[in-house]
Amino acid sequence: MIYNFDEMPSVINQYIAELRDKEIQKDSMRFRTNMERVGALMGYEISKVLEYEKQDVQTPLGVANTNMLKDEVVLATILRAGLAMNNGFLSVFDKAESAFVTAYRKYHSDNQFSIKVEYMSSPKIDGKVLILSDPMLATGSSMVMSYRALLKKGKPKHTHIVAALASKEGIEYLKRNIKDSDITIWAGAIDSEMTVQSYIVPGLGDAGDLAFGKKE
How far apart are CA 131 and CA 94, in angstroms? Predict the structure, then answer.
């Protein structure tokens, strides 16, 4: 299952448009805030497909029988670009556990690169709902390698892979390389092209640099 918010009427579309806008991008705080908003709203949409159970809640005047989240949620993100978006998810799933993966491009020559995963911090994920987010899903390699690294901590009940922007090529790469049937993909928008350096077009540029400053 793939959800593309660009095809749905949602305020997420406005925040994605501002993330793309090169003038608004000059304000890094605004960029981070918009990325957090996208994460929070996507988290809300994902919450609709999770499992709930009825629980009694004592109020000052009586007892309310309420739907409470039954699923245990683990929020995973890819450092450093994913931090702002992850904060949005945390504002929705405030009782969730957290996992972090460092995955980066190691360039060789002629725009050729490989993906390196150096570090992972994660709780056990057996039987839990894993929400793995990264602002940009370009080639899909970082997401696949991060997902495989997290599987060392167990098999999740279901995995939601989330990106603010994705490429068609990246989506197809996920389909070819992650065969599990219990995976859902959520994207703010899906763009059709990538540059020879594997940046999404029209995309928005480097999300990590825009949020936190350029790397040396």
Answer: 13
DSSP structure class, residue 61: T
Q: At what angle do helices 83-92 and 28-47 cross, to 10 degrees?
A: 40
Q: Check residue 180 and give left, alpha or beta (phi > 0: left; psi -120 to 50: alpha).
A: beta
CA 74 to CA 154: how far, in whole Å?
12
* Level-2 CATH architecture, domain 2-51+68-205: 3-Layer(aba) Sandwich (3.40)
Question: Contact 144/178 with Cβ under 8 angstroms?
Answer: yes
What pLDDT score was predicted for residue 120? 86
**Residues 31-81 pLDDT 10s:** 999 999 999 999 999 999 999 999 999 999 999 999 999 999 999 999 888
Write down the domain spans for the chain: 2-51+68-205
